[in-house]
Please model this.
Amino acid sequence: MKPLVSTDGNRYHPVFKTYWSESYFNAKINDKKMERILDFYDYLLSNEGKRLVNYGIENVDYKLDGAKIVPIDPKTVIGEKYPSTLVFNTLATWETLYPVDDANDQSWMNKDLQKDAIDYMKFIKSNTKVPSFSPELTLVSTPAKDKFSVINSDLLIKIMVGTDDVEKMFTKEVEAYKGKGLDKVIQEVNEKSQQMGIK
Model:
């Protein structure tokens, strides 16, 4: 489903930081070990490293046809054959299973899904805007905000599979969050934003 039209007539797409996760290293690691770890990360981010952890060993599990990766046995599940790849394929980077880059042809995985992903990204680029927001406020610390959590992945599923009116279900959930202190969080963040000169 394409991004819905907002009440102001525009379509918007979400914005995320260029990073959202991190790696932690023991401060006691000596320079030599740290250099080897960073070398390994560099390898995992290289084309060769990405191919290894996602598609296995060249000429054993896949062959290259120009830029296209062609599996030797499409039924092979690399994560089952090489269990360590389940860790290493997301250690240094997170990437979608169906790339949206036309040049990176992996349509052997699933042509329809890859085409849908590419078409979706083209639609986003041509038909949506970045919403106006102040990223600093997502990191603001206030007493109520620091204790408040709205992470509930079940909420969206609950509404999507629910049979009641969507707006009523959503309003009910908002009221539940208000009962947990949402209004206080909003008040504190608004006050903090004014102190920071953000409107």
About this structure: The beta strands are 62-65, 68-71.
